[in-house]
Every structure is written in C-alpha cells, then in structure tokens.
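User: I'm new to structure prediction. If I give you an amino acid sequence, what do you actually give back? Let's try with this one:
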Amino acid sequence: MFGSCWDNNFTRPNEKGEFEVADGISSTIFRAILDYYKSGIIRCPDGVSIPELREACDYLCISFNYSTIKCRDLSALMHELSNDGARRQFECYLEEMVLPLMVASAQSGERECHVVVLTDDDVVDWDEEYPPQMGEEYSQSKMQSLWSCFLSC
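Assistant: Good question. You get back a string of structure tokens that encode the predicted 3D arrangement of the chain. For your 153 residues, that looks like this:
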C-alpha cells in the first residue's frame, strides 16, 4: 500500500509527509477498527450507525459479519446482515434465471429484452395468444417467446 511500486497511487503523502489511509472515516470508527487488529472484533461505538460502520469495513477490506462485529443495536446489525443475504439471493436469481434469458435474446440478434419477474404470490392472467401489452407491437410478439422461456424454466 505504501511502497513505490504502486502505479495507481492508492495512498499519497499529504503536505507533512503523512499518509491518510482512512479518508472520510470518523476517529471513533477508526479507533474501533484499530481495536479489531488487536482482538479480531469491532465493538460498534455508541452513536455510530451500523451502515456507517459497514461502509468503513468495506473501505478497509474488513469482513463484516456476526463474528467480527459486536454492537448493542442488534436489530440494526441483523438488518445489515439481512441486506447481505438479500443481495446474494438476488445475484443468484440474476445469474441462474434472468441472465440466461437475456443472453438467449442477445444471441438471437435482439437489441431489447423485456423480462418480467414475479413472486410466488403474484397472479397474472397471461395468454400465449394475447400477452400483456408492453407499449410496442414488436415487444408484444417477443413476449410470447419470453413466456415460453419462463414456462420451460
């Protein structure tokens, strides 16, 4: 990080020759993070929001999980961890279900692809002869092939 071999100048000395590593991170959070290097645990200081702590951990490449973060506001921590789970779930759905449909559409020469994602509770009356209107006649005809793709998935 501080060596001369870094071409991208990740860190630069200021006018005093000091390196500023934690730009934008409050001293309270930085102190808690320094304790992490001693104990392996970050104790979230009072008055610091979990998203703010999360952002600092991401910036400093520190794993943000239940074993490294301890805080009094357990609901905020669970909310942040739940967001992680939701992001991973979305990435999984995107890679396994949506991306293959988009790739198939692109490989057939299409420049547009309309994908409709429904939850298990959604009820839509779709008919292969009369798909829902997308605003353009061309899109309506492509909706049938997408509907067929959804049926086969």
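You can read the tokens as a compact description of the fold. Here is one thing that stands out. The CA atoms of residues 52 and 84 lie 15 Å apart.
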